[in-house]
Amino acid sequence: MKYLQGKFPILKKQALAKEVYSFWISCPEIAKIAQPGQFVHILPPGLGLRRPISIAGIDPENGILRIVFVIKHEGTRKLAELRQGDYLDMIAPLGHGFTLLPEASHVVLVGGGIGVPPMLPLAAYYGERATAVSGFRSFQQVILQEDLEKSGASTICCTEDGSAGAIQGFVTTPLEQLLTEGVDAVFACGSQPMLKAVADLCIKNHTYCEISMEERMACGIGACLGCACKTKNPDTEEIQFLHVCKNGPVFKAEEVIW
Amino acid sequence: MADLSVNLCGIDFKNPIIPASGVFGYGREYEEFYDLSELGGIATKGTTAQKRTGNLSPRIAETPSGMLNSVGLQNPGIDHFIAQELPYLLTKDTVILANIAGSTPEECAEVAEKLDSTQVHMIELNISCPNVKQGGAAFGTSCAMAEQVVSAVRKATSKPLVVKLSPNVTSITEIAKAVESAGADAVSLINTLLGMRIDIHSRRPVLRNNVGGLSGAAIFPVAVRMVWQTANAVKIPVIGMGGVNSGEDAIELMMAGASAVQVGMAVFTDPYAPVRIVREINDFLDEKQIPAVRDIIGTVQPW
Ligand SMILES: Cc1cc2nc3c(=O)[nH]c(=O)nc-3n(C[C@H](O)[C@H](O)[C@H](O)COP(=O)(O)OP(=O)(O)OC[C@H]3O[C@@H](n4cnc5c(N)ncnc54)[C@H](O)[C@@H]3O)c2cc1C
Ligand SMILES: Cc1cc2nc3c(=O)[nH]c(=O)nc-3n(C[C@H](O)[C@H](O)[C@H](O)COP(=O)(O)O)c2cc1C
Ligand code: FES
Predict the structure, then answer these.
(1) What is the CATH classification number for the domain harbouring A55?
(2) Which of A116, B102, B144, B178 is a plausible cystine mate for B108, CB 3.0–4.6 Å?
């Protein structure tokens, strides 16, 4: 394990959709070691607890990390007030990320809403071997489809109301179809109901699946036991409370007890 | 450079700053940031006789200038602590306070007895836990229950025994006197204040456990008051904590009567908080030309 704390400058800020922002952050030591699925733990100015945000882009050559976040309440609102040139107080890179499978010939990246950003580093790794299925409520929330395409992934965009994308409905509709075509692995991030549906589908189809879980955090490094997630060891069936910040955020689908 | 050393119950601390129980695990995660030998001591996560899984999530909520937690006493049990964590911690050239808890006086005594034959420097007994034999009220909320559990632990160990007091009481001084007479070598305070938040959109408590412990800057004035009252009521040393974020906060608690200071929630905001606070204490003393931190303990001049 290796992480550090520091204040890092925001090189660029961009609004992607209503209340959704992207920062590009200069942090060479972190960008060098960050892995897809890991997160950064950011202190919003004036608050006491840090906010976990997934890494949405890793550029080790230029020493840049990208994040994408949506305004929920006070903490993310304070982050959104920061501007280019301001410094972000972060501990990073944290957590156990997605498994990279060099041999895989076809993987599916499933992102729901603000769960789409952590799919970008995976899309960069798998390129044309990836199909990125993204789900949003409506056209106003659609983000990052061009970024996914630029990495070589094919994209399937779904909206619940059919106002954008090829499919009206949930990500599970195209996923079910893709699973019948032979998929080596599925990687997913999004709301709990979406993750559960994806996990259930993959387990039923005997397809390897990893999901990124969320939990409220304090330390972010495995010391305070604040971010417990109920799991079972698939081999021994033993029930364990693992920690999303250290043992996760990425877990194997069959480990999680919903 | 001022003399930062303090001595409590015959144990030498190189400085008075100790990360509080529950925020620092067993120290390993913070070694990524600094050398643990820079700390006066480390209070380890509360350990019980058997492994415990703790409460369901969410266990954490931020509140104005503070936080609520309902981690519960998740821990791997005393045998694991003694076999896997303690030997490593004891190589770190800092004072180790093993924080312990239990649901009955017998369980607390059993844990203390196991630690008695180790090299651990001090035992910190958390009496804020529910006493299952007395309808679940915390040991630390009645003089009789507090005395009973402290006596049981006292008999089980000759290690310096620090009793960690709950602030959720009518009179902190009565409890402090009760644990002193039952054989405590020191008291530490304050543990968290019981609190609650509700999500008004879902009408659900934010914490899955409904209620949780409040810590952080929000409780600092309560900590100063209780440390001051307690230090005036007992002869044994007092370890102060509750909302300490800076060297100035630590000095304030020491002037109120604390011989050492623990740092809790502040390590979440700034993982370097304990070592930064040590530096800030030194800067304050140098600026005021006070030669030793011991010289400020209990020096508040009340009106
Ligand atoms: C591993 C991980 C990766 C994440 N990645 C992203 C991302 O890339 N983009 C993004 O927009 N959001 C992401 N989130 C969710 C994000 O952390 C929350 O939206 C944010 O903490 C909300 O803070 P707030 O102060 O605005 O909201 P509040 O609701 O006021 O927050 C109060 C407290 O609850 C915590 N909290 C609230 N919602 C969540 C949540 N869903 N997960 C964890 N803690 C929460 C906050 O950290 C804070 O401590 C991620 C969460 C986790 C655990
Ligand atoms: C996440 C968390 C876990 C805690 N766990 C314990 C514990 O196991 N045993 C204990 O005696 N106190 C525990 N505490 C209480 C702290 O040690 C301390 O008394 C309290 O937080 C007040 O200090 P602070 O305001 O500096 O955080 C815990 C506090 C927090 C925030
Ligand atoms: S947030 Fe502290 S253990 Fe995960």
Answers:
(1) 2.40.30.10
(2) B102
pLDDT for B216 equals: 98
Q: Any chain A CB within 8 A of the CB of B67?
A: yes
What is the predicted ipTM? 0.94
pTM value > 0.80: yes
B74 touches chain A (CB under 8 A): yes
- Which of B62, B67, B81, B275 should one mutate to test binding to chain A, selecting the residue with the greatest count of A CBs within 10 A? B62
- Shared domain for A136 and A35, answered yes or no, is no
Q: What share of chain B is helix, strand, coil (3-state, %, to 5)?
A: 35, 20, 40
The whole domain housing A200 covers 98-211
pLDDT over 70, % of chain A: 100
**Beta strands B66-69; A130-136: pairing state:** unpaired
Number of A to B CB contacts under 8 A, please give it. Answer: 95
Q: Domain count of chain B?
A: 1
Q: Tell me if B303 is assigned to some domain.
A: no
Q: What is the pLDDT of residues A215-225, one digit of tens each?
A: 999 999 999 99
| Shared domain check, A191 and A221 | no
Q: Structural domain tally of chain A? A: 3
Look up the CATH number of the domain holding residue B285.
Answer: 3.20.20.70
Cross-chain Cβ contact B67/A218 below 8 Å: yes
Residues of B with a catalytic annotation lie at 129
